[in-house]
Amino acid sequence: MRSLTKESASGFAWLLAQSGGARVVNFLAQILLARLLSPGDFGEIALVSSLVAVMGTLVGFGVDDVVLSRSRRFHVWAAAAFWVSLSFSIIGALTLLAVAPLAAHLYRSRTVFGMLAVLATSMPLGALATIPNAYLRSKLKFRFIAAYATVELLAIQLIVILLAWRGCGAFSFVIPTPFAAIVRTLVFWQVARPPTNWRLRRWHLRTLLRSGSTVFGQKLLTSLRENGDYLLLGVMASKSSVGLYFMAFKLAAVPVYTLVNSMYGVLFPALAQLRGEPIRQRTAALSASRAISLAVIPLSFLQAAVSPFVLHIFFGGKWVGAAAMLSILTVGLAFDVIPCVAGALLTANGKFSAQWQWSLASLPLFFLSIGIGCALRGAVGVAIAVAVFFIVGAPGYSYFVLRKFGCSARDVAGIYLPPVVCSAAAVGLGLLMCRLPQVQGRDVAMIAVICAFSLVTYALSVRWLSPVATRDAMRKISLMWGRAL
User: Fold this and answer.
1) Is 359 helix (H, G, I), strand (E, B) or coil?
2) DSSP per-residue string spanning 12-58
3) What is the spatial distance between Cα 157 and Cα 162, in angstroms, rounded to a whole number?
4) CA–CA distance, 239 with 204 (Å, rounded to integer)
5) Which contacts of 360-364 are long-range, i.e. CB under 8 A and separated by 24 or more positions?
6) Engineered SS bond to 297: which of 6, 30, 124, 419, CB 3.0-4.6 Å?
7) Count of H helices and E strands in the chain?
8) φ and ψ of 109, to 5 deg
9) What's the pTM?
10) Spans of all domains in the chain
11) Is residue 455 helix, strand or coil?
12) Other Cβ atoms closer than 10 A to 123
């Protein structure tokens, strides 16, 4: 248990460091790209990337999660998983090419068709790396995964910026994708060298298709939820409105969802190795949920408070329309991070149908809320609807999952309430101090005042309100960075 805890902590520390580096790189890249491209260009890439993300669920077809849950017999399942993943990625690419003309018509943009064609070629190429990536995760090789992701991100962002500077417009975002997929496949196979018995067995294929279809269904519903706002907004609003919303969502979501992927990539293999020990799994899941909540929620509240000033400093007046949406989305999306622990717990125990049931029940509510928001207030209304959906839905999902493992509503409330109350009070105090005449109208000074007062107030208040969880979170953070360094 101790070895597993240390490996998980080290892995999370490396992936967290990578996500922090990604946050800085993406922010700097967005500053440059926002000056080189128009909101309309960002609107086109938002629409295209949303369609590709939905179709991209076919690339893995859920087989990576299924194989990881059987990691002790990886070599037996790898061949079937490889061919299933590759076959469905080809189906996804062909489907994407088939719907490209319709998408170009609905979104009133000829550029959309060409961008979809380029990205369709990347889907089978990306599928070739599914097996070595799953094997590296099963062996908890998160240091390499984090290092490679950092190098890949830097290279892609540099190429995108150069292409935008050369006048490639929205195509700047998609041209590097197939080349990155080829390089990733070659490197991952060379490094991982997964043990593979290439002999196919029919019952392996049947099992993967049966279990993978449930995971695929859940991932498809999740992808529709994550991209439905773009898809709907693109039909009902202009490309510029979509671009402003995309910029706000990306600035709010990139650090959050990078953190989610990092945590899920560590928690799932770690919890899978505790399969058959429900008490230890439950304790680990609750502890991880509290630690994540105590760290993520205050940072999201703080980011929401300072984001309008940061946007004004770095992005200028062209993007001022994204400021309100950025603040709203930052708070809402933070709540979407915490249930990743519950999701990893379900998947580690092979309870794929439970995730499917929740996604299937919540998706209509999501589309209904963003439809109403878009009709009433356009892009800002969609941002409000998305934030409310996550603020209400995240605790509900956590309870839906954790109660299956013996947790109570009080346990779930203990995950969310202390950091929310303390964060709201702390950031509220920071904003109140900005009313002082000495700092009003000075963006940098207001950011400094909000950060200083909010962080100090939060640290003191949460330590008083939730001392045990705070000590546990600090112990985990110390362990993570100690192992990483």
Assistant:
1) helix
2) HHHHHHHHHHHHHHHHHHHHHHHHHS-HHHHHHHHHHHHHHHHHTHH
3) 9
4) 46
5) 360/217, 360/221, 362/225, 362/393, 362/397, 363/221, 363/224, 363/225, 363/228
6) 419
7) 18, 0
8) -150, 120
9) 0.74
10) 37-236, 238-485
11) helix
12) 26
Selection from 209, 208, 242, 235 nearest residue 42 by Cα:
242
Which is nearest to 8 in space by CA: 251, 317, 365, 344? Answer: 344
Written as tens digits, the pLDDT of the chain (485 aa) is 445 455 555 555 555 555 556 667 777 888 888 888 888 888 888 888 888 888 777 665 556 666 666 656 666 677 777 887 788 888 888 988 998 898 888 888 888 899 999 999 888 888 888 888 888 877 777 778 878 888 898 899 999 999 999 999 889 999 999 999 999 999 999 988 877 766 766 766 676 666 656 666 777 787 888 888 888 888 888 888 888 998 898 888 766 666 655 555 556 556 666 666 777 778 878 888 888 888 888 888 988 998 888 888 887 677 888 888 999 999 998 898 888 888 778 777 767 677 778 888 888 999 999 999 999 888 999 999 999 999 999 999 999 988 888 888 988 998 899 889 999 999 988 888 887 777 777 778 888 888 888 888 888 888 787 776 666 666 655 554 444 44
SS (H, E, C) 416-429: HHHHHHHHHHHHHH
Q: Which of 236, 223, 225, 249 is nearest to 46 (CA)?
A: 249
List, as one string, the DSSP characters of 195-229. Answer: -------HHHHHHHHHHHHHHHHHHHHHHHHHHHH
Identity of residue 362: S
